[in-house]
């Protein structure tokens, strides 16, 4: 057998070494940079984030990103599974008899992630920064300006707040704003007091949250939460399908195809986005309440929910949240599709079908014949590309009873300008609802978002009463009365709250009310 030369053996060894090095290099390129940081019990999430450069919670740029910062920061109060405010950083509170002054007494065992004790001065500084941003028209907690007249620390553990003209039960909901360290309220990545602290953050790439061992409650079962950022829903869903992540947060309608199974769960969560059909009450065609009610009867909610949104919505007949104590559960005030009832209401209002051939209804106004023809505006947004289909289905139904609509798709800014000017008849648009159960901003005469030109002295009086109701029972009953009047007057039509989905292979929460922005609420207390 011929001897191999030393040089040929050396060449083979060098080739094998080169091949091994190439493979190692290739595998290292496939392995994420954060892999070396992960522990075996880490929860790996996938989230869409393309804009967030910091974690400061006062000026969030993305909805899902707020679910992450909610694990880092806490408020004086939190909202429980029954949608009621409960003490959090505040151990207790009391209110003066007239509701004008509130006292919050902080827990004495709370520290920030850097070990600094929480004080009332941190709460004051956080609130003042939110109020400063609100004056500039910025920040997602800007409604705080409607509740706080002044805030100060009477000592290290006592916060004293003087209220505005709203000394009501809803004030406690506004006290869930994040509390930051006083010296870091404008920092990009301030420390918080939450169950997790920010370990690593690489914008548009990944984030590592680690359990805070000094948390004032308990030590979370999940020692780490790794978050991988994606740029599109397609990439996000692909990561879940190929098991690159344990769970994803998404508002994409495509998530509806994933059902609960043996190894995978689909946990629905409620967003703050209320979809509505806005109605211009000042329009001559729509100023008659029976016309507005007829339009409501011609909306086939089941069709829209099942065949357009594929169940990724929560139906609602009023601006309040279904399934909570705030909502009016009344069989007499239930939205239903009823063509015959719509026809009767239109006939009673004087808009008639003169030839009984399903043509456009007519009415004599100021001595001139007018047609029941409506201007219908729609705007689309990246995460809700189905509004036009909803509009088309509504228009088809309205035409069956002689109401003609011309749909026009516009940019959001253009639709908003028309709403403000009152230059529209119908519009598909959404409201981002505040945590506090008080829809007065859209229903009080002349208020900021009353684009419908709805004007009711009775409704105004109810909101005056609501905003002075300190006790829960009075507040709750007044909310019920507001919703009954809303149903009767039909100033606009509530369709549904948008839903999102948590697709996950690891169960990490047992809370009953999963909602924005606390989508991940419960992970800090979940027992695996």
Describe the fold and architecture:
With 528 residues, this protein is an alpha+beta fold. Among the domains are: 96 residues, Dipeptide-binding Protein, Domain 1 (Dipeptide-binding Protein, domain 1, Alpha-Beta Complex); 229 residues, Dipeptide-binding Protein, Domain 3 (Dipeptide-binding Protein, domain 3). Helices cover 27% and strands 23% of the residues. The protein has 13 helices and 19 strands. The longest helix has 25 residues. It starts with 5 loop residues before the first helix and ends in a 24-residue tail after the last strand. The relative contact order is 0.15.
Q: How do the helices and strands line up, and which of them pair or pack?
A:
Layout: H1 6-30, E1 43-48, H2 63-69, E2 77-79, E3 85-87, E4 90-95, E5 101-106, H3 120-135, E6 148-155, E7 158-163, H4 171-174, E8 196-202, E9 206-211, E10 224-230, H5 233-241, E11 247-250, E12 265-279, H6 289-297, H7 301-307, E13 313-315, H8 339-348, E14 362-365, E15 368-371, E16 373-379, H9 387-399, E17 404-410, H10 412-421, E18 426-432, H11 440-443, H12 457-466, H13 472-489, E19 493-504
Parallel strand pairs: 1-10, 1-11, 16-17, 16-18
Antiparallel strand pairs: 2-3, 4-5, 5-7, 6-7, 8-9, 9-10, 11-19, 12-18, 12-19, 13-19, 14-15
Helix pairs in contact: 6-8, 12-13
Which structural class matches the secondary elements? Answer: alpha+beta
Radius of gyration: 28 Å
Low confidence ranges: 1-13, 19-31
Helix fraction, binned, reads 25-40%
Name of the CATH superfamily of the domain at 272-500: Dipeptide-binding Protein, Domain 3
The name CATH uses for the topology of the domain at 272-500 is Dipeptide-binding Protein, domain 3
Task: Tell the overall outline.
Answer: globular
Report the biggest beta sheet as strand number plus sense, adding barrel if it closes.
11 strands, mixed
Helix tally equals 13
């Amino acid at each position: 057998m011929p001897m191999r030369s030393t040089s040929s053996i050396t060449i083979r060894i060098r080739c094998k070494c080169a091949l091994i090095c190439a493979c190692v290099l290739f595998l290292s390129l496939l392995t994420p940079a954060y892999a070396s940081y992960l522990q075996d019990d880490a929860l790996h999430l996938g989230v869409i984030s393309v804009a967030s450069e910091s974690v400061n919670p006062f000026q969030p740029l993305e909805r899902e990103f707020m679910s992450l910062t909610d694990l880092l920061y806490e408020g004086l109060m939190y909202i429980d599974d029954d949608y009621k405010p409960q003490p959090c950083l505040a151990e207790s509170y009391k209110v003066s008899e007239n509701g004008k002054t509130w006292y919050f007494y902080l827990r004495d065992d709370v520290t920030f992630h850097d070990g600094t004790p929480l004080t009332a001065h941190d709460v004051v500084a956080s609130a003042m920064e939110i109020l400063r941003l609100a004056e500039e028209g910025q920040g997602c907690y800007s409604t705080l300006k409607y509740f706080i007249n002044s805030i100060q620390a009477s000592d290290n553990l006592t916060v004293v707040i003087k209220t505005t003209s709203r000394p009501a039960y809803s004030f406690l909901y506004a006290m869930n704003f994040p509390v930051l360290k006083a010296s870091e309220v404008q920092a990009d990545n301030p420390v918080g007091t939450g169950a997790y602290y920010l370990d690593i953050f690489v914008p548009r790439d990944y984030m590592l949250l680690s359990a805070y061992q000094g948390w004032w409650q308990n030590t979370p079962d999940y020692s780490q939460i790794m978050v991988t950022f994606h740029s599109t829903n397609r990439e996000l869903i692909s990561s879940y399908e190929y098991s690159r992540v344990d769970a994803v947060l998404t508002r994409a309608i495509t998530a509806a195809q994933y059902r609960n199974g043996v190894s995978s769960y689909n946990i629905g969560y409620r967003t703050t986005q209320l979809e509505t059909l806005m109605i211009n009450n000042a329009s001559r065609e729509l100023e008659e309440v029976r016309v507005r009610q007829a339009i409501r009867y011609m909306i086939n909610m089941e069709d829209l929910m099942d065949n357009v949104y594929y169940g990724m919505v929560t139906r609602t007949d009023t601006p309040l949240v279904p399934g909570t104590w705030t909502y009016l559960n009344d069989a007499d005030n239930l939205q239903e599709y009823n063509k015959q009832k719509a026809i009767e209401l239109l006939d009673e209002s004087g808009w008639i079908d003169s030839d009984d051939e399903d043509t456009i209804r007519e009415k004599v106004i100021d001595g001139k014949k007018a047609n029941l023809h409506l201007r219908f505006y729609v705007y689309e947004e990246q995460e809700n590309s189905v509004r036009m289909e909803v509009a088309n289905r509504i228009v088809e139904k309205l035409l069956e009873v002689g109401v003609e609509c011309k749909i026009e798709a516009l940019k959001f800014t253009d639709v908003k300008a028309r709403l403000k000017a009152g230059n529209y008849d119908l519009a598909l648009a959404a409201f981002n609802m505040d945590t506090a159960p008080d829809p007065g901003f859209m229903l009080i005469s002349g208020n900021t978002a009353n684009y419908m030109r709805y004007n009711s002295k009775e409704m105004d009086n109810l909101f005056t009463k609501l905003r002075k109701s300190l006790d829960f029972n009075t507040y709750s009953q007044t909310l019920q009365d507001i919703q009954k009047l809303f149903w009767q007057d039909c100033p606009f039509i509530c369709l549904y709250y948008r839903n999102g989905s948590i697709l996950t292979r690891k169960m990490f929460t047992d809370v009953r009310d999963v909602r924005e922005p606390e989508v991940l609420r419960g992970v800090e207390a979940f027992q695996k």
